[in-house]
Design goal:
By secondary structure, the chain is α/β, with parallel strands linked by helices. The protein has helices spanning 9-26, 28-33, 53-58, 97-112, 133-143, 155-165, 174-183, 205-215, 329-337, 376-387, and strands at 77-83, 91-96, 121-124, 146-149, 169-172, 193-196, 218-225, 229-235, 242-244, 250-255, 262-263, 270-277, 288-297, 309-315, 320-322, 325-327, 343-349, 357-358, 362-368, 391-397. It binds zinc ion.
Length: 413
């Protein structure tokens, strides 16, 4: 794995031109959508319209279950993943051999950034089921790790594998890592790296500190987006945001989630992450809205990797607007986490009304540790100071909010 890389600009600009020409030649969806933009350059990509998942879904027919953005011939497709949809019908994500190889390359770069090294052992808890996370598993072989898959939903098997096979690393969702740290004594295990992915939260400071304490290990996070690529981003040992492991394959942008306007990629900028394929073949996407709300860091990273780093604050789908203020449940969890160890770190936002817009105060259940002296007022005023939102804090006993082995739920619907 090379550490340094060339400035992305020239190679990416060339890939973009080729990707665009490919789309005009093969994609019915983008030929319509991008009429007039045949000569677009990467530096002007923000002029192109955004691509929404619903638009792609609307083109799905019984004859073409992928949608009209499908570019490849059937014989070119070597893998078909699904993403879970809210409508009950999955979206299919087809990949050619080169697409799959690029996914694994990017994913391997993202996970290798964590510091795991060839020859080490890693226990994974993803299922190689229909979802794209299965493709991340190939990244571990690519890095040269000894991969020990234990799958989802078998805690006993996982704990045994850690005990008997003495892996240096584990990979799982942050919720599951927290669940294990709460219920098992893992501090003195062989694990010295916990790689978290699959949901936001692994980068929240208090939450991460608790995981690191529980596991006696360094925690780094990785992130991808089902429709576009698995583990596109991965954090290095500096633990200061995720680097783009899929550089050369994917181009990132930021937009304002409400207006759709482009936001300059400057240090500290925050917005919705928008991604474009640069070298994809089966069903490439341009300016795809990920619904991930991220904060950008552009200061040089001591590890030497180039390009901006991101931290994911939450899903724009989870965002609530409380008297004009955008609030992410994960951001509330982060502030509450400052009160650790008096709080467990688990919260549940309970909106009073359906929909995004809420009237203050916003009800939030906060789990407290046994015998902890916690002041609900202190939590409420800290949230108000940091996030500018009025909440109504309900303290609930530790263990009363739902735990999940996969993704934790932060909002009661
Ligand atoms: Zn770094």
């Amino acid at each position: 794995m090379r550490r340094k890389r060339r400035s992305s600009t020239n190679a990416d600009a060339e890939s973009y031109r080729a990707q665009l020409a490919y789309l005009f030649a093969r994609s019915a969806f983008y030929r319509d959508k991008l009429a007039g933009f045949e000569r677009s350059e990467l530096e002007d990509i923000a002029e192109l319209p955004l691509t929404e998942k619903d638009e792609l879904r609307a083109t799905v027919t019984p004859e073409n279950p992928f949608g009209s953005h499908l570019c490849a011939d059937p014989f070119e497709i070597v893998r078909i993943y699904s993403t879970s949809g809210t409508t009950g019908t999955p979206s299919y994500v087809p990949l050619t051999a080169s697409d799959l190889d690029n996914w694994v390359t990017g994913s391997a770069r993202s996970y290798a950034a964590s510091g795991v090294e060839p020859g080490q052992r890693i226990v994974s808890t993803y299922n190689a089921g229909p979802f794209v996370a299965g493709a991340a598993l190939d990244a571990f072989d690519r890095i040269g790790l000894t991969h020990i898959p234990v799958g989802t939903g078998n805690t006993e098997r996982l704990v045994k594998a850690v005990e008997l096979l003495r892996p240096e690393a584990v990979v799982m969702t942050p919720s599951y890592a927290a669940y294990l740290a709460e219920n098992f004594d893992l501090h003195d295990s062989s694990v010295d790296r916990v790689l978290v992915a699959g949901e936001p939260g692994g980068g929240e400071q208090a939450f991460r500190a608790k995981l690191e304490e529980g596991w006696g290990a360094r925690v780094t996070e990785a992130m991808g987006i089902g429709d576009l690529g698995v583990s596109l981003w991965g954090e290095c040992e500096e633990q200061d945001g995720m680097h783009l492991g899929a550089y050369g394959f994917v181009h990132p942008e930021l937009i304002d989630a409400v207006s759709g306007e482009a936001i300059a990629m400057e240090d500290g900028a925050a917005g919705e992450l928008v991604l474009s394929h640069l070298q994809h073949r089966a069903a490439p996407l341009l300016r795809f809205r990920t619904r991930d709300h991220v904060v950008l860091k552009t200061s040089p990273c001591p590890c030497g990797r180039a390009g901006p780093r991101i931290r994911c604050i939450g899903r724009t789908d989870d965002m609530l607007i409380v008297r004009g203020v955008n609030v992410f449940p994960s951001a509330i969890r982060e502030v509450v986490g400052e009160f650790t160890p008096a709080v467990s770190g688990h919260i549940l936002v309970k909106p009073k009304a359906p929909g995004v817009k809420q009237d203050p105060p916003l009800p939030v259940a906060v789990e407290v540790a046994p015998d902890a002296a916690v002041d609900a007022d202190a939590i409420r005023s800290r949230i108000r100071d940091v996030l500018l939102v009025q909440t109504q804090i309900e303290l609930v006993p530790r263990g009363s909010l739902q735990r999940s082995e996969y993704k934790s739920r932060l909002v009661a619907h």
